Amino acid sequence: MSRLILASSSPFRKAILDKLNIVYEAVSPDIDETRFDSETPQQYVARLAREKAEALQTDYPDALIIGSDQTAIINGKTIGKPGSFDNACQQLRDASGKKITFLTGLSLLNSQTGSCETDVVPFHVYFRHLTPTMIEHYLKAEQPYNCAGSFKSEGLGIALFEKLEGDDPNTLIGLPLIRLIRMLENQGTIII
Questions:
Q1: What is the CATH number of the domain that holds 109?
Q2: Is residue 79 one of the residues assigned to a domain?
């Protein structure tokens, strides 16, 4: 197995990768995450995932480097991390009774050969009709201000949903493991 690097400081992505029982290092990449005016949400997350992996290529010349990034879309509008209670309230009010699509960009860079495989994996969340009381209670309980969409699906946030739709539930949290396993296998790294 090649040396494996997760280009992320996200505790959520680390927890997901830990499920595979593999040895890896998590290193925070330093990149500018500003979205270009002409980019679609798909192009944006694909570029950031690739750039996160590429940012560590020089420091880890003999590794497989995983980059990942995520954005969410509701009513055709891209939403990010709320950062505050008021913004989170607005995001959940906007999501009430609607579908949010999460797009997770995933890249696996072989820093030795320079080959890089990138994909964008969608996941859909259908929200229940949320009352102001439900929103306030949830936000005070979990404070998901650093999470796109203002919820933590791995916690109490699951109570906000009508249904989930996608190939891999890990995608919703930010790291599509099913797709990553295939990418690793393409590079000769077998998980099981």
A1: 3.90.950.10
A2: yes
**Is 69 known to be catalytic?**
yes
Q: What is the DSSP string of the chain?
A: --EEEEE---HHHHHHHHTT----EEE------PPPTT--HHHHHHHHHHHHHHHTTTT-TTEEEEEEEEEEEETTEEE----SHHHHHHHHHHHTTSEEEEEEEEEEEETTT--EEEEEEEEEEEEPPPPHHHHHHHHHHH--TTSTTS--TTTGGGGGEEEEESS-THHHHT--HHHHHHHHHHTT----
Q: How far apart are CA 91 and CA 85, in angstroms?
A: 10
Domain count, the chain: 1
Q: What is the pLDDT of residues 13-40, one digit of tens each?
A: 999 999 999 999 999 999 988 889 899 9
172 vs 152: CA distance, rounded Å: 9
Contact predicate 110/117, CB 8 Å: no
Residue 151: is its pLDDT beyond 70?
Answer: yes
Tokens at residue 51, please?
């750039």
Active-site option among 18, 32, 69, 168: 69
